[in-house]
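Fold this sequence, please.
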Amino acid sequence: MTFVTCKRATLLIPSGPPADPERFHLFVLLTDPDPEGRVLLASFSSIKPGMFHDPTCIVEPGEHPFVTRLTWVNYSHCRIEEATKLLDGINAGLSSSAKTLISDCWHGFAGGCSKASMRDPPIDAFTSIARAEHYAVVGPGPG
């Protein structure tokens, strides 16, 4: 499968300690590359009883092939990466591409950017892009 760095693309990125190289985390690209070739990524996190989760965007099992339990989008851990770095990781076999999010699920992710506060100016700038693109497609919503 060829990976294209564009919004809605998902990929598995290594997230474990050196002693656990087989641990990966699922991420989604929230934006297309900016003029400098950077993208905004958000991670999926499983909902665990008694643990905090942001209810802004909940993903049900089956909405993505790698989501097997109730999951939330952890906007507080968004990060900016260079698209070439993501491609280099995939080409080196360190990361792997996953399926592109379907439209209904994607609108929940992008719409969540309008509700989540990143408290990080560079990331807020990227979420502004994601919000503008989302509203251009679905409108600003009620209120």
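DSSP finds three helices and six strands in the chain. Residues 137-143 have pLDDT under 50 and may be disordered.
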